[in-house]
Amino acid sequence: MKIGVPKEIKNHEYRVGLTPASVRELTARGHGVLVQNGAGTAIGLADEQYVAAGAQLAPDAATVFAESEMIVKVKEPQPQECAMLRPGQILYTYLHLAPDPEQTAALVKSGAVCIAYETITGPGGGLPLLAPMSEVAGRMAIQAGAAHLEKSKGGMGVLLGGVPGVPPAHVVVIGAGMVGTNALQMAVGLGTRVTVIDKNVDRLRHLDLVFGNRVTTLFSTAHTIEEAVLDADLVIGGVLIPGAAAPKLVTASMVSRMKPGAVVVDVAIDQGGCFETSHATTHAEPTYVVDGVVHYCVANMPGAVARTSTFALNNATIGHAIALADKGWKKAMKDDSHLRSGLNVALGKVTYAAVAQDLGYPFTAPDTLLN
């Protein structure tokens, strides 16, 4: 199979779909790989390294899309990229379709086979291709929150860990999944006062065993969220419903009553965000202020640490990329129900139930397209 790797074009996005090591895995199996010039240069992956791994170089994205049977990316295709997709071509990348009707419509129109990293499941449960970026984003959320609590960045002027004689900041983490766990790990390490909120009592019990009295665990209700948010200096939103729009757990009314200069970091913004006042921002302009509260809602947070993120992501994605290249998408999905869970749009049909429900499309079960 001919596999194409275009250079990412989203604002301040420097990650790349395949590393030279991943290219070598594919070329060693007889597949061709076409990499756009400069695709990995920004993170120290030179064109020469790709050539040494067996790839060919392409002068532009148009060539990559035109000559490849499968496109491997990181972020969702931008409008000009959607326009280059063709019927039956495989697109393997993050999509986050539920809050993005324009992209969904473009992918449906393209007739391409669109596989979303974020909905591929794992044998032990969970979302293994989303996990590494959730780990990065969860850890970055504390860094971003700490920076924007500084007065020069619009915050209230609070040091997360405090100093002797001065209490630490109160960090509230909503969601105890991969994002939330990594965020609270960083927050605890900095010596903050941490509250974590989730509706899974077993998960809260596990965190209590691991962190003991260094964190406060709360069962998620509207009341507990409101009380915690109003007392918080920094709130991290890390809730996820696989493939669906994130629930709005923090209302505009709650935000309006938060402390002036408090900060919210909405890591769920890829799926629409879990704060009612959230809208997506970029690394170029990462924040805005609502009712005196600083909102950090960058939709590709891991792109800021693009080298670390690229290698972590490739560790998770290369196995399925090999399967798709070796077998073709239909046989690969027949053989692996977890990969089949990643099929969101195919041949003009919406094939992921949560996306169809949220955006008003008829749902087509993947099995009907595989047979």
Structure explained in plain terms:
The protein is an alpha/beta fold. The chain folds into two domains: 2-120 and 306-370, Rossmann fold (3-Layer(aba) Sandwich), CATH 3.40.50.720; 134-299, Rossmann fold, CATH 3.40.50. It has 15 helices and 15 strands. It has helices spanning 20-27, 47-52, 61-67, 79-82, 101-110, 131-148, 178-189, 201-211, 222-231, 252-256, 306-327, 329-335, 337-340, 353-359, 366-370, and strands at residues 2-5, 32-36, 56-58, 70-72, 90-93, 113-116, 170-174, 193-198, 215-219, 234-237, 263-266, 287-290, 293-296, 343-346, 349-350. The strands form two sheets. Strands 3-2-1-4-5-6-14-15 form an eight-stranded mixed β-sheet, with helices on both faces. The radius of gyration is 21 Å and the shape is globular. The two termini are 21 Å apart.
Element pattern in H and E: EHEHEHEHEHEHEHEHEHEHEEEHHHEEHH
Helix content: 25-40%
Overall shape: it is: globular
Find the CATH topology of the largest domain.
Answer: Rossmann fold
CATH class of the largest domain: Alpha Beta
User: How many β-strand runs?
Assistant: 15
Largest sheet entry: 8 strands, mixed
- Which sequence of strands runs across the widest sheet? 3-2-1-4-5-6-14-15
Please specify the SSE layout and strand pairing:
Layout: E1 2-5, H1 20-27, E2 32-36, H2 47-52, E3 56-58, H3 61-67, E4 70-72, H4 79-82, E5 90-93, H5 101-110, E6 113-116, H6 131-148, E7 170-174, H7 178-189, E8 193-198, H8 201-211, E9 215-219, H9 222-231, E10 234-237, H10 252-256, E11 263-266, E12 287-290, E13 293-296, H11 306-327, H12 329-335, H13 337-340, E14 343-346, E15 349-350, H14 353-359, H15 366-370
Parallel strand pairs: 1-2, 1-4, 2-3, 4-5, 5-6, 7-8, 7-10, 8-9, 10-11, 11-13
Antiparallel strand pairs: 6-14, 12-13, 14-15
Helix pairs in contact: 6-7, 11-12
